[in-house]
Hints:
The protein is an alpha/beta fold.
Amino acid sequence: MSALLLFSVAACAKTPEAPASGPEAPSAESEPASKPEEPAAHPENPSSESEEASSDAPEEPVSEGPKLIFDTTDLEGNAFTMENLGDATLIMVNMWEPWCGPCVNELPELQELYEKYKDEGLLIVGAFSTTGMDGEVAQLVQSAGLTYPVVKADANILQFATQYVPTTVFFDAEGNLLSKEPVVGANNLAGWEEIVKSYLE
């Protein structure tokens, strides 16, 4: 995926390996993730100018591009596959890391989003790739009260990643890509609702 849809609030530059002590990585210059109501300015992409955000979602799956296949494990080591999607019709994969402040700050709002729209077909799947930080992730999941699955990001998931976290991509129940471009950066509840409702309509 060559372009970024938006820096909605804040994002962290993704490094090959986060330090074991888990300090927050340098963030893209933006307003704090806790400031929900006003649309945040789009920070400048280090490599190119960021594109204007668009809330319009495609009505049909993107015809070209890779397909998502879940074949990984959750924090308890249990297998997580496509069968775990249940009756969900919209899969929201949120790639985040425990050392990324904006990622962590939006977890409670993602949980609220999930609670609000799960009965309409939304399933959020959190995915992280930093090794050696399962304990930190488990603590964050517990403190945020997350009830949606959080899994280890393997190659099948990371093919949709960008150079920043959080990065969020939407799929249908068969793993077909719905996002024309990934959503890069943390968002607030109102922002996520606008995007999710556009796919569920």
